[in-house]
Write a structure and sequence with these properties.
The protein is mostly beta strands and 500 residues long. It folds into four domains: 125 residues, Immunoglobulin-like, CATH 2.60.40.10; 109 residues, Immunoglobulin-like (Sandwich); 113 residues, Immunoglobulins (Immunoglobulin-like, Sandwich); 137 residues, Immunoglobulin-like (Sandwich). The protein is 11% helix and 44% strand. The longest helix is centred in the middle third of the chain and has 19 residues. The radius of gyration is 33 Å and the shape is elongated. The two termini are 36 Å apart.
């Protein structure tokens, strides 16, 4: 079943935005509360039947070019707002209301055979900065901080009395078409923000403040007899809307992209998509396809590790663990336009950026043990010398000369290597134990020795060598792509290469 996420950012009917969404495929959509919403369910209805369900209830069926609404949806007021246009397969909802929110299912069948040719879900979320809530029964209502909140407490006030309480305090009472506020609520400042409209039984709070949040009790009685005809509670939650979303993308030393999303607002929830598709749907497939393609067709991206592996460090997060986080690490295989969306109960916002390709920027080599590493002339080289620097000292030598030491979380370059020009090209990153050489020069080639000791005792816990070879990547591709050369660069035998 194909999931389609429909996000309607409803910024108020006064802005006059029409919400148009192609739900024949995955797509994010934006619209306006109180305005028309257009959902294209299918492109060509000729010769097909369509069934549209909300959860477990059928809303309507299209059969032989005729639309039939089912049961409680088959009313004049509903059909006045909902209309399906067979000519273009579009459902029009006008005006959109909060109760239109929900999970819908679209089923499409061949009319002649009854064979299923489509089955997908549409998650419809109606939101807006003008908060309107049906509070004629038990309800949880969300209001925008600083914006108007409309609570419809009863549909027909005529012949009824209404009492509105916050916890154990009465706030106001409607009797004989007159509204009376009590005690500390009977002040000019409070009346300026709180108003009850008798004609339609709606309480208006404008502007909404944090202190307006709480649990309220609504009691309704017959005016003539005093008989109770209704009692329910309203949970009012006031939230700050989502502000502008800030998306940042940076490359790690392992070809991964670290992406971070931030925004202001209450109760923020983050979600991610690439080219309109939820990240959870594409992360595994794209990563697998990209890695397979890299293994088969791109020897130069493999050359940094003598074992033929470009495995990322063990500490790299698994995409499947938490895709609602505001910070993720994406493997290089995921490409396209990345969108971060931030939302809460009353508004949403997003930002989109093109994901850069990081794997091609340099040569990566696991040098945590004896290894032969290849680097591209003029490009960055990443040598991971150790996985965890905490509690350890490290010395890095060339022949008999110490180049730098890492001790007590501080990196010190020695003698002739302690120059601005050298330090500008050579950098050791303690967070992940990686030496970065950028740009790589032919003089950087050589045999290096890595010595690791425990910080507290001075005990040796590691001693290995790294053979670094700097090559002109274009020249090497032209003259030396034989199985023997490829096996040398990847650490495999010629027979293993020929079997690929």
């Amino acid at each position: 079943m194909q999931a389609v996420l429909l996000l309607l950012l409803l910024a108020g009917a006064s802005k006059g935005l029409d919400s148009i969404c192609d739900v024949t495929q995955d797509a994010p959509c934006y619209g306006a509360l109180g305005g028309p919403v257009y959902l294209q369910l299918m492109r060509d209805t000729t010769g097909y039947e369509l069934r549209f369900h909300k959860e477990h209830k059928t809303v309507f069926i299209l059969r032989r070019s005729k639309t039939v609404f089912d049961e409680e949806f088959n009313t004049p007021s509903f059909r006045q707002r909902w209309q399906f246009v067979p000519d273009n397969g579009t459902l029009i909802i006008n005006p959109a209301e909060r109760r239109d929110s929900g999970t819908y299912r679209v089923e499409i069948y061949e009319q002649s055979t009854g064979k299923s040719v489509g089955d997908n879900t549409v998650q419809l979320i109606i939101e807006g900065l003008d908060s309107i809530c049906d509070a004629t029964q038990d309800a949880a209502c969300y209001g925008v901080l600083g914006g108007p909140v409309y609570l419809q407490l009863m549909r027909d006030p005529s012949g009824h009395e209404l009492s509105f309480h916050n916890e154990h305090k009465p706030i106001f009472r409607l009797r004989r078409s007159k509204t009376v506020f009590y005690d500390e609520f009977n002040t000019p400042l409070f009346h300026q923000r709180w108003q009850f409209v008798r004609d339609n039984g709606t309480l208006i709070i404008n502007p909404a403040e944090k202190r307006d949040a709480g649990t309220y009790r609504v009691q309704i009685h017959e005016e003539s007899t005093g008989k109770s005809v209704g009692e329910h509670t309203v949970q009012l939650i006031i939230e700050a809307p989502v502000s502008v979303v800030n998306l940042s993308i940076s490359c790690s030393a392992y070809g991964e992209r670290r992406v971070s999303c931030s925004s202001n607002g209450d109760g923020l929830q983050y979600s991610w998509s690439v080219d309109g598709r939820p990240l959870s749907e594409i992360s595994t497939n794209q990563s697998t396809e990209s890695q397979t393609k890299t293994n088969k067709t791109s020897p130069n991206t493999q050359e940094a590790s003598p074992s033929g592996s470009t495995e990322r460090p063990e500490s790299s997060p698994d995409l499947d663990t938490d895709l609602s986080s505001s910070t993720l690490t994406l493997p290089e295989g995921i490409q396209g336009h990345l969108t971060c969306s931030a939302r809460n109960n009353i508004s949403s916002a997003s930002e989109t950026q093109l994901l850069p390709s990081c794997i091609s920027v340099g040569s990566i080599c696991d040098a945590t043990q004896t290894a032969t590493c290849y680097g591209a002339l003029g490009g960055p080289v990443y040598l991971q010398l150790m996985r965890d620097t905490s509690g350890h000292d490290l010395s890095f030598r060339n022949n008999n000369e110490t180049i730098f030491r890492f001790r007590a979380s501080k990196t010190t370059f020695i003698k002739e290597f302690n120059t601005p020009s050298f330090i500008q090209r050579w950098q050791f990153v303690p967070d992940n134990g990686t030496l970065i050489i950028n740009p790589a020069e032919r003089t950087d080639a050589g045999t290096y020795r890595v010595e690791i000791h425990e910080d507290s005792t001075g005990k040796s816990v590691g001693d290995h060598t790294v053979q670094l070879i700097i090559e002109d990547e274009r020249k090497d591709q032209e003259v030396d792509l034989t199985p023997t050369s490829m096996s040398r660069r990847r650490g495999r035998t010629p027979e293993e290469v020929q079997m690929q």
